[in-house]
Structures are given as C-alpha cells and as structure tokens.
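1st attempt posting a full record on here, be nice pls
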Amino acid sequence: MITLASRAARLAAAALLAVPLLLSGPSTPAHAAACDPLNRVVGDINSDGIADVVTGIPALDGRRGGVDMLLSDGTRSLVTAASLGLPSSATSDAFGNAVATADLNLDGCSDLVIGASGRNSGKGAIYLAFGSPSGTLVNATIKEAPTGAGLFGASLLVLAPQEWNGTAWVRTHQQVVVGAPWSTVSGHQWAGAIYVYHSAPGDTTLTRETRITRGSPGVPGVPALSGGFGGNLAGKGRTIVDGDAIDDVGTAVNAGSVTILSATAAEPTSFTGQRITQNTAGVPGAAEDGDGFGEAVALRDGHLAISSSAEDIGDVSDAGSVQLGTWDEATRVYTPGRSLHQDTPGIPGSNEDVDRFGYAVSIVKNLHDQISVAIGTPGDRVGTITRAGSVTLVPINTSPRLPAIRISQYSPGVPGRADVKDHFGTVLSYLPGSTDGLIVSTPDEIGPGTWRGSVSYTRNLTTWDSLNFDHPSPETQSYARLFGGVLAQPAAAR
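the predicted structure (as tokens):
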C-alpha cells in the first residue's frame, strides 16, 4: 500500500535504502561537433535537438546515490559525484534525490542540477554539472547547504523566464530554486525553507541568494514544526509553487496547502505569496484530516494542477482527486477550477479504495491535445490486477474537450505487464519538444532477473521504450523504489 507523505518525507525515506546496483544496457555514441546556442530544447544535454531521459537513484551504493542519464542517441551513463570529478559521496548523501534540467550557461547544451539532501548529516547540498556535445557532463561544482538548512536539495526547480525582444524570445535572469524542508527557522526545527539563487544570463555562481520561509515579508503563515515547506516544488516564469501535503489547516491535521510565490521582472528577487487550501473560496472540497492537498503540483502555461491523492470520495477511502485552476502571472491571481476524480464524467475508471488518483501530476503539450494534465494513479486496479497503476491524460484547454485517455501496462506498446503492486504512475515527468514526451515510473516493478523498478517513456504515445537497473543479489520488499523514484524535471520558461 502506498502511504501518504510529503515529497520531502519520501526523499528522506529513500535516503534510508541501500542496495548496490550495476548499470546495464549498451551505448552507441554519436556526438555533435558543438553546442548550438540557438537550441531551446530543455533537457537536451548534448544539443542534438532531442530531450534526454534522466533518472535519479538516491538509494544507489549504500545511499551514496547516482543519476542515470540516457541520451537520445542511445548513450547511457551513470553519473556520480566521483564521476564528476568531485569528492565521492558518503553513505546516506542520497545524491540524485532530486534532479532538474536547464541550460544554465546558455550555450545550447542543457545542464543538470542534482540534489544530495543527505549530505553532511542531512544538511544537504546541490551539484551543478554542465552538458557538452559529447554528452559528458563537465565543469561540475558543488554548493553546500547554507547555515541552518536541513535537507537542502530535497526538491529542485529552475525558473527560466523569457522576454520578447521584438524578434525572438530571450532568456533573462534564471533562478535555481532549492527546497530545504527540514531547515530551522526562528528556532523552529524542520520548519522548512526555500532558497532562490539569481543569476544574470550565463552566471552560474549561485551567490545571490533569497531565503523564503513561512512568515517572510509578503508570505503567509508562521514558521512551525512541519517538515513540509519547500519539499515539493513546481513553477514557471517567475512563479514558484510549493505543495505541503502535511500542513495543518485549522484543526484538520495533514489537510495540506499550496503556497504560490511570485516575483516580477522589475523585482525578480522579491517574492510575495498566497496560501491555498481546500477551505479557500472557490476551491472544491473542504480541508479534512489526511487529505494531503498539495501532495503533487504542476504549473504550465497558466494551468495549475494540485492533487489530494489521499482524499476520500464519498465512502471510498484514499480515492484521490486533482484540482485544476489557472494562474495569471501578470496579475498574480489564482482562479480555482474543476475537481477531477475517477467518478468524474469523462474520466476513465472508477473510484476505489487506495487508488491514489493524483499521486503524481505533470502538464504536457501537444501529446494529447494542446495542453493536458497527466495524472498518476499508482494504486489503480487494471483489469483484475490490484495496485498495478495507471496514468490518465486529460485535455484541459480546449472546448469541447477531447476524451481523457487511460494508460497502463496493458495499453498497446507500453513495456512490461501489469502486475500486482507495480504502482505504474508513481512519478511523472515530460520530455520537452514541439510535441512533449511523457515519462512514467514503475518503481515497484520486479523484472525477470534481479532488478526492481523501471522507467517507461514515449515521445508520441505510440512508441514506448523502458529502462531498468540490474543488481547482483535478490532484494526484498523493503528495498522498493530503487529505480524510478526520481525523474528529472525540466526548467520552466515562459
């Protein structure tokens, strides 16, 4: 059974796992001559015009961690702190517990920001590693956690705002956003903080820092023992969205909340915030114990998706729901929209206990209509197979809307097979392009050898591929989610 936890708590739990793994799979290098500065495909490490598949493995090698990197040309490599030319990770560093892709130095090859929230006894750190035409990461640096931070790097986001100069979109001041949900704030342990690092075009020093906590100027709330603030990040342009599924709302314990933090082009380092709960006017439902509102969040092109996968629907326990709304960055106005669950007309399937509809959400473009929300339901029953898991693609910006579609390992072309407790759809991400691809993790899938966990991806919903890791000895249920528990999240632009 999947249990409710904030993103930070899941990452902390992942850092407690330990089984050595060996990378498997052939590589066939084919390298470009140089990075193309005009390349705008986020997540394209070798600048060949196609986004690459990057998976964090924080439990690798006694929790030292690693990152699996598959380039579009078939080259596959394992990235560790040592392979980047930096001091090797220590046990429990959890290198790879969060990964973001962005072109930080604006050369046309995308770069990686990698979290290691367990480093230095849980203070945390992040790593920057820069793409190259060969696909090899170069010029890596490490940034240790600031004083007072805890689990620094548990979540990551890169904001890449762009402005129209009359002929083209130009990237301006990018911002690397780092969640540290166990930070001490005003004497309160585990209150949580978000660190924003501002850079001029091409500046990757990460020295200009803004620290945001509950109670910061313009930010609602007060610091308190929670371990949730900063643990689950999404965003776009100059907006940061933080979901805190374990936030209390009045007397409702773990009801959950979302904080929207926004800045302007004139003042990109000054963020103001607003807090949204299921008690906010216009938001469907009501704040109740254990709903976990904000467990997963996604923001893109003005559409904001917020999940409550532990929400009960009627007498169905943990059926889950997803709230859709819009965010106007210019006016800083959030407008609530409709609520979706598996008994909503047009949504495939039906509400069942522990479906956890909305455990993961992502917003994709041109894959199934112009803009769709991808909703992971890892506890979903597929046919007669319990907890096999599914993903639902719901168009959200057209009227009349196209029908929603449901994807599982029974769907044509999807690798693997639906088995009990595979939990297909536990983590979602997308591959940017003129048509986005979709990445789906099945972290509890057991293969025919000794591997556990897989990642499936598609660029067109017709052709799918999958990845897995092998390791030398059989594992037990206690080592679940070794591969596929972390997927890289692309930088958010205009």
